[in-house]
Amino acid sequence: MWETSARLLRLLSLLQARRDWSGAELAERLEITPRTVRRDVERLRALGYPVLATAGTAGYRLGAGADLPPLLLDDDEAVAVAMGLRTAAGGSITGIEETSVRALAKLEQVLPSRLRHRINALRSATVPLANTGPTADPDTLTAIAGAVRDSVRLRFGYRAHDGTESVRTTEPHRLVHTGRRWYLLGWDVDREDWRTYRVDRLEPRTPTGPRFTPRTPPDPDPGGYTSRAISTSAYRYQGRFTLHVSAETAAGRIAPTTAALEPIDEHSCTLRAGSDSLDELAIYVAGKGFDFQVHEPPELVDHVRALAARFGKAVG
To answer: How many whole angstroms separate alpha carbon 176 and alpha carbon 181?
Structure first.
């Protein structure tokens, strides 16, 4: 009985980890026969888990049911969920604060003491600042996440930074959270190019579009690509600088929404930032308090040289 119970938990964990599994893959992972896999799937169904059979491939998928069955979380996942709920309870996502508190109370009630101590340590050391900026609607986030998971096109109304409204159709790739805002990274079908969209400015339309084959992303690091897109690429002038500090040190003063950092070595890094004003670019970098060199664009190099001469005269 114990072997069967442990095997069922392992099977459930595998089904939760990936969308589709073939019977042969599950049998190999569990070191059992395909016939035993079928029996264990029936046992899970009897316990209320909606395990779906994939037609034509002898595969299995954990689907959505009428009720939410228990979920299996390892230690790190449980801590992450608890801290995420605590953050949401603080108001980073509109309208989900009260629900987050209820879910957090249920989770903490069943946490082992070792995990409760870890979460309490993180909680006591964390003081959130009041969130005064725009927040993302939880229904919008879940709609986008579902479209990313299922590889279906997403249509939405979008309001640009200048207030212009349009309807976009995308092949959504990833949701990116910068710590202040949520962004969608996706392939814009009409513009035939990768784009980033602020989630608080979009409103999903129904129904969703057809399924698509995911494209190779423009960068293996979606966070880094999004940082460059929102801080640099959208502006008239795109500056490139070398900071004479490590990327880790620079990141303590430079937010990913204002500039993108790339490590060079342990003592230097590249900073990329954009602006419609050369003065703004120069003052932004100089104000961070790090020694730096400016490389491009050429007009920014000339502008910084002129500023240096002007400041020299001011104190001469």
So the answer is: 8
Neighbours of 85 (CB within 10 A): 21
pTM: 0.58
Task: Give the integer Cα–Cα distance in Å for 161 and 96.
Answer: 26
Spell 192-219 as b/e; 16+ CB within 10 A means b.
Answer: eebebbbbbbbebeeebeeeeeeeeeee
Helices (H), the chain: 2-17, 23-30, 34-46, 75-87, 97-110, 113-124, 138-150, 222-228, 247-251, 278-286, 298-315
* Alpha carbons 54 and 145: distance in angstroms, whole number: 22
Conformation bin of residue 40: beta by default, left when phi > 0, alpha when psi is -120 to 50: alpha
CB-count exposure of residue 12 (10 Å: 0-12, 13-18, 19+): buried
**pLDDT tens over the chain, length 316 residues:** 447 888 888 888 888 777 788 888 999 999 999 899 999 999 988 888 888 887 666 689 888 765 566 777 778 888 888 888 877 766 666 667 667 767 777 777 777 888 888 877 777 776 665 555 677 787 788 888 888 888 999 999 999 888 899 999 999 999 888 767 889 999 999 999 999 999 999 999 988 889 999 999 888 888 888 888 887 777 889 999 999 999 999 999 998 888 989 999 999 999 999 999 999 999 999 999 999 999 999 999 999 999 999 998 998 7
| The pair of three-digit structure tokens given for residue 168, joined into one six-digit string | 């976009």
Cα 187 to Cα 165: distance, rounded to the nearest angstrom:
19
Q: Look up tokens 């002129």; give the residue.
A: 306
Residue 14 CA to residue 51 CA, distance in Å, equals 12
User: CA–CA separation, 114 vs 101, rounded Å?
Assistant: 21
